[in-house]
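Input (structure):
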C-alpha cells in the first residue's frame, strides 16, 4: 500500500471533489475531514470515502452549493435543512451555530436533516470542546438502506447510529468518545474487503443469520451485529434511542425508502461548562480523572489504560509524522478519478 503524507492526501481529495462540482469551502471541509479520520486511525471514514461521495454527486444524491436553511429556531434550538449538501460542511455550520447559542443560553441543541454523510462524528463535539464546552452528537442514516440487525434478529433494521461526546480538559490529547452502536462501523467492512482481510467473529452475520469472518458475506445479504456481543441488547437499545433522536425527532422517519438516498440525520447539543462550575477547575479535574484511570497497573496482556480519545491522538502523531497507508484499491480509484478529470499530472497520480 502506498504511504502518503496527510497534506498531500488532503490536496488530492479536495482537488477531485472540486472537479466533481464542490466549492472550495466544501471540498476543503470534506477532504480535511476524511484525512483527519485517517490520521486518527478511522480509515473507514477516511480518503476511502471520497470516490463514493463523488459517485453520489454524479447521481444527484449530493448537491454541491446547497443552501443551509434554518427551518425553525428559538434562542436555544435550531432545526436545519441541509438541502442535500455535503454533510461535513452542513454539520460543521450547524455545530458552530449551536456553540454560539450556548455562549448566551448555556445549553443549546439542533437537529439537522437532508444532508449527506457527515464523516467521523467526533469532529463536531470536538468543536465544542475547543470552545470550552461539552459537545454531544448522534447520527443515523435516515431512511437509506440499513446495516445492523437488532439484537435477536437477522435482518438489518438499524443504522450504525454513532454517538460522540467531547469534553474540554488540560490534557494534551483531547478527552472524547466516538463510537458506533454496532459492533463495528460499516466502513470497516468495506475496508477489509478492499484490503482482502478477514474480520473478527462477532462483527457480522451472513444472509442466513450465521456468524462469519468473511467480509464479503455482508454485501450478500448479511448484516452488522449490534455492540455488546452476547449482551448486544445494550448496543441495540442505544441504536434505537439514536434513531429516535436523529430519525424521528428530525422528521426523517424510520425504515427504508426505495430510492436509498443516504440522509444523515443528526441531533447535537452543547453545554457551557462555565454555567455549571469554573471552566479551569473542570478542565483540571478532567485531566486528573484521566490520570487516575491510567494509574491502575495493566491487566495481563494489556498495554495499560488509555483514556477516551488518547489512542486516536497517538495515532495522529504517528501518522502525521510517518504518513498514511492507503489501500491499493482506494489509491487506484483516486488515480482513475484524477485521469478522468485531467488532474493526474497536477496531482502526480499518473
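Output (sequence):
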Amino acid at each position: 500500500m502506498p504511504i502518503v503524507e496527510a497534506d498531500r492526501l488532503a490536496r488530492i481529495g479536495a482537488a477531485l471533489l472540486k472537479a466533481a462540482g464542490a466549492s472550495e469551502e466544501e471540498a476543503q471541509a470534506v477532504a480535511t475531514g476524511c484525512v483527519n479520520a485517517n490520521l486518527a486511525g478511522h480509515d473507514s471514514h477516511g480518503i476511502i470515502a471520497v470516490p463514493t461521495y463523488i459517485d453520489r454527486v454524479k447521481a444527484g444524491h449530493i448537491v454541491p452549493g446547497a443552501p443551509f436553511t434554518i427551518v425553525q429556531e428559538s434562542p436555544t434550538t435550531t432545526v436545519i435543512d441541509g438541502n442535500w449538501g455535503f454533510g461535513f460542511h452542513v454539520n460543521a455550520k450547524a455545530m458552530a451555530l449551536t456553540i454560539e447559542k450556548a455562549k448566551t443560553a448555556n445549553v443549546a441543541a439542533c437537529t439537522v436533516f437532508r444532508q449527506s454523510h457527515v464523516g467521523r462524528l467526533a469532529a463536531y463535539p470536538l468543536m465544542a470542546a475547543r470552545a470550552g464546552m461539552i459537545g454531544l452528537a448522534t447520527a443515523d442514516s435516515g431512511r437509506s438502506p440499513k446495516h445492523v440487525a437488532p439484537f435477536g434478529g437477522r435482518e438489518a433494521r438499524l443504522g450504525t447510529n454513532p454517538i460522540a461526546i467531547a469534553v474540554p480538559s488540560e490534557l494534551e490529547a483531547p478527552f472524547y468518545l466516538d463510537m458506533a452502536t454496532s459492533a463495528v462501523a460499516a466502513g470497516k467492512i468495506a475496508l477489509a474487503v478492499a484490503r482482502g482481510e478477514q474480520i473478527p467473529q462477532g462483527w457480522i452475520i451472513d444472509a442466513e443469520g450465521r456468524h462469519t469472518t468473511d467480509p464479503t458475506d455482508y454485501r450478500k445479504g448479511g448484516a452488522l451485529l449490534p455492540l455488546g456481543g452476547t449482551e448486544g441488547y445494550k448496543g441495540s437499545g442505544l441504536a434505537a434511542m439514536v434513531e429516535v433522536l436523529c430519525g424521528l425527532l428530525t422528521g426523517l422517519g424510520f425504515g427504508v425508502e426505495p430510492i436509498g438516498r443516504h440522509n444523515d440525520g443528526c441531533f447535537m447539543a452543547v453545554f457551557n461548562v462555565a454555567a455549571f462550575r469554573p471552566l479551569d477547575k473542570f478542565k483540571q479535574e478532567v485531566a486528573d480523572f484521566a490520570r487516575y484511570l491510567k494509574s491502575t497497573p495493566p491487566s495481563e496482556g494489556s498495554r495499560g489504560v488509555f483514556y477516551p480519545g488518547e489512542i486516536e491522538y497517538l495515532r495522529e502523531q504517528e501518522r502525521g509524522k510517518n504518513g498514511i497507508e492507503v489501500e491499493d484499491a482506494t489509491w487506484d480509484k483516486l488515480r482513475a478519478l484524477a485521469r478522468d478529470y485531467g488532474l493526474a499530472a497536477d496531482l502526480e497520480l499518473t
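Notes: Residues 154 and 209 are 5 Å apart (CA to CA). The longest strand covers residues 77-85.
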